Structure formats: structure tokens, C-alpha cells
Amino acid sequence: MGNIQFLYPNVLWALLLLGIPIIVHLFKLRRFKKTPFTNVKFLEKVVSETNKTSQIKKWLLLISRLGMLTFLILAFAQPFTATESALVTKEYTVYLDNSFSMEAPGKQNDLLQEAIQDLAQHFPQEQKLSFFTNDQTYRDVSFQEIRSVVLQTTSNPEALNFEDVLLKAQTLFSKHNGVQKELILISDFQGPMTPVENDSTTNLNVYTVPKTATETLNVSIDSLYVLENGPQETALRLNLQANGAIREVGVTVQDGDRLLAKSLLDFEENSLEQQLDFKIKNGTGIQGQVSIRDGGLPYDNQLFFSTGQSEKIKVLHIQQGDADYLDRIYDNNTFTLTKTALDQLNYSALYEQNFVFLQGLERIPNTLVEALIQAQENGTGIGIIPPSQPDLASYDTFLTKLGFGSLDQQLNDEQEISSIRFNHPLFKGVFEKNEENFQFPKTNGYLKLKSPPSTVIGFSNGSPFLSESNGVYFFHAPLNPPYSNFSASPLIVPTLYNMGWQSIRANPLYTVMTPGNYMDIGGTYPEETIISLTQEELRFIPRQQYMGNKIRLFYDENPQSPGLYQTDAPQLPAKTVAYNYARSESLENNAIEFKGTSSSETVAGLIELLNQDNRINQLWKWFLIVTLCFVILEVLIQKLIK
């Protein structure tokens, strides 16, 4: 506490009025009346005693009246004592962390609900403040005005680090100099919160109310992805993670009410990651949900996914010369094969194809080169089969732009095709074992690259017969007789079939709800198509981009809840897409300790701490009591001293 100060110091000028009673008592302004008395001796004695008593009474009355007036004036000036911080103007900003980690169990409820009730019950209702969470902001309001908003706060997928919180708080404080800024953080302090020390140059005090979970063990469904995509069925792999040892965690995978997989998993200290593999049949369309049950955070106990119904793969054959082997491979059940000559090519159709074959073109015009590069960037696969006498300059430009490097020369040497890269995705699952006694075909010449990329099938001299770069396949020799007998080889069927099959870009199993993420919806759409997403009565239009053979849907703010949603576009079949929360807070279990901050376990305790710093001791009541004492003293003097 500091020295005594006055709320109204100008009142102290009234102390000058103390001169009035002093003047009255020092100058005898009383008039005396003469009374005849016969006994002079007795009279002298009475006068002497009366003068002494009168003098004492006058001085006592003077002191009591001066004291009464002095303390009365001081009381009206309202004296008080306070700390230095109590006299500074303060602004309060409260941050309530409503990230998913605050869903952890507390003593009576989850941490977020405990924090909300603590804040609503103990924060001063009339106190002006700014208040913000991860998704809401209120500036310069009384707590009473936003009390209902605080009570309705729910968890949010966004998590802020301390730098984000500090920058947000600084925008809510005023720019006035001499104002003490008080920032109150209510959080479990999980994740990327960086320790901070108070900076006296910013007039910012940081107060923390750390919330501690009673259960820190948590199991999270981390991800689900395609392990292997075959013509008949697809293998999926589910990844789960835990932040500590926990046994017998039940996992179920369902398609609606139909059970797809079920298992019990144990997480040990040396194996905190577990996997569950299962298969689904292609073409059925799965609206799936993975569920687990643990005692930790609930938001990561579900994962939604979807697989679409099979659609025919579109293959465009741009030909110059005969190639009937493509008709035999790309049957009508799985593929839709379209043939066209180069001079009859509809360039807009390129962007709607899953795979494009260039067969026997002596020269590739620049317009086709640019169109194919654009289609390839949009996900279209490309296969190139050269003629026996190609325009080397044209092919050199085309192959260089596609990432194959430049052509070296055209050789007319006979070469045997003698090596297969069995572990390449093109042949995955085709051969039960590496074939050594395979009857390999031959060619009568080939095009040699200076620095070929990945070799899929090779010649006996080590040069590639089939090379691949980013989904583009280049045969270094013609496939038809008399230049090659590859078209009659059994190897042509899995090679060309898988080129077309693997060109299909299946819709993603799900999209993580992080701003900037997107999913591609494959299919044939008119350019003016606008896709809406629906779920029961909810409908919204996401930001989207037309890309020929697919439409890209971006995640910005909607949907706000994970789940399965249906696409809706005029005169087009509906598809199911899935959205899930990011798992960024699933494995955190160590709260950050902030340095240089005042802390309390509850809001009530923090308010008491702030009140101690802001406490002002009013003294006017005591001064008024002393004034009354002087009044009583004067009455007693008047009664007791005659």
C-alpha cells in the first residue's frame, strides 16, 4: 500500500475555514453584564476560579471544533490508500480456448464446459472486456452482454498457438498510452504454445488459468488410405495412434448398417501405432464409417469415408495406321474406347479422357503437344507408340516437355526385350513370381533417349523399351509387325490394360477439413456445372474449379461438421463425399508452463488475485467516525465543565 491520497483534493482548500473558530476563541467577542455584589472578598475568589475554568473550557472546545472540522473536511475529500497498479487504467481481454483438446475429461465435465461455467459464475458481470475464442470475437462489451454467448461456446477444429493469440489480443486492446493491458488465457495449453515472458514495454500482463484433464490417454483414428487398387477389389489400410499404452481398443468399420471389419487392438509403449487392413469390392459404392471407443478425446473417434460406384474408363486412341490390338484389350465392360484420326481430332475431348494413346503419328503438332500437356496436368494418362519413321525433331520437343529428356538417335539394330521391372505399379499383382523363362518379344529398331527416366520394360542391352514419367508411357519402338512382335506377345495385355486401368483417378476417400484442402470429383461434366453438397436439410456450394475430366472442390468454411455429403448437380448422378477433422491435437498430453505469468487454477482465484492488485482502501468512513468522536467530545465538554 502507498501513502494516503485523496479522490477530491480540491476539497482540502476548505481547511482554511479553520481560521474562523481560532479567531472567535482568541478574541473575546463576548459582552459582559455588570452585577452589584456586596462581598468583595468572596467576589474576587469566585472571579479567579471562574476565569481558570473558562480558559480550560475554551481551549478544549477550540481543539474539539478544530478536530471536528478538520476530519469532516478530510472525509469529504475521500482519502484512500492503494498500490501503484490500482491507479492505472486497465483493459481486459479474455481468451477461451475451445479447441478439440479442451474436450478432454475434467473433474465433473469436459475441460471446456468446466471453463465456461467457471467463467460465467465468477467473472464480474458489469466488467468491460474484449472476449475471443478460436472462432468468435467480441470487443469492448460487458460480460453480462456476452454471457449467453459464452455459455453456448462449443469446441472448434481450429487451434491457435500463443503467437496467434497474442496478435489477436493486441488488435482488441486500445492504442492509448498509459493503459495497462491485462490478457487472461483459459486453456489446457496443449500443442504449439510457446512459453512467453511479460514484456514491460508493451504494458501487457498475461494471466493464465490452466485446465488439467483427469484422463490423458487417447487413441486416435489417424488416417485411411488405399493400399492396393485392383480390378475386382480394393485393399484399404487404417492407421491408428495412441499417446500411451492402452489395451483392447475396439475398432469397427461399417457401410451403413453392414459390418465391413472389426478388431481389438493393443497399444504398447514400444508400439503406439497400429494398423488394420480390410478389403472392399469395387463398384458397390461404400458410405463408410470407422469408429473406436476410448476414454480420451471424442472428436478423433470417428472417421468417415466413401468410395464411388465404378464408371467406365475413357480411352481416346489417336491413330495413324492400324492397331486392332487396342480393340481387343479395351473391352466395352470396363473401358469406353474412342478412335480418331489426327486431322479429325476434337481437342476439347482430350480433357474428358482418362487415358490418351498416340499411335503411329509421324509428327506431333505443337497444338496437340500443348493440349496433351494440359490434359496430363489435369490427371489424364498418356501412352505414346511411335511409327517406324517418326519426325525426330517433333518427338524430341514433345518428349522433353513431358520429362523424358531429349532423343539421342534412332537405331535399326534388332533387340530382344529381356527384362521386366516386376515391382513397378504397372505389373503389381500380375506375376506370382519373377519370370525368368518368359518368351520375350523382339524389335527391329528403337528410339534411344540420352537420359531415359524410369525403365518399365528393357532391352537386353540395357536400353528401355518402355519408359514412364509421371503417368506418361513411351514405347521406344512400334508394336506392330514387321517392326516388332510385341503386339502378339502375352505381355501386351497386362501392360496396356493396366495403363488404362491405373489412369482412373478414384475420388479421394475423404477430405481433411483444413482451409486450402481440396478434393477432385472425377467424371464428365459440362463446363458450366456447379456442384452443391447436401446433408439432410443442409445445402451449400463450395468453391470449385472445372478441370475437364474432374471438378475440384475446395474446403474453406463449409461443411462445419464431419460426415458424409451428397453431390448435387442438374441432370448428373449424385456422388458421396466425406469430410473429417484434422488430427492435430490427438497426441498432445503435456501442458506448456508459461514463465513470467500469474496463474490460478480457477477463474474465481484469478479474479481474487486481480482484486488484490487493484484493491483501493477507502478511508472516509474512518475520518467520519473521528469527526463524530469530536462532536461527542464537545458535548461532554459543554456538559461536564461549567
From TrEMBL:
Lineage of origin: Bacteria, Pseudomonadati, Bacteroidota, Flavobacteriia, Flavobacteriales
NCBIfam families referenced in this protein's UniProt entry, alphabetically: two_anch (TIGR02226)
Aerotolerance regulator N-terminal domain location: 4-79
Superkingdom classification of source: Bacteria
Pfam families assigned to the protein according to its UniProt record, in alphabetical order: BatA
Keyword vocabulary terms for this entry: Membrane, Transmembrane, Transmembrane helix
Originating species: Sediminicola luteus
Name of this protein: Aerotolerance regulator N-terminal domain-containing protein
InterPro entries linked to this entry: Aerotolerance_reg_N, Double_TM_dom
Residue spans crossing the bilayer: 6-27, 59-77, 619-637
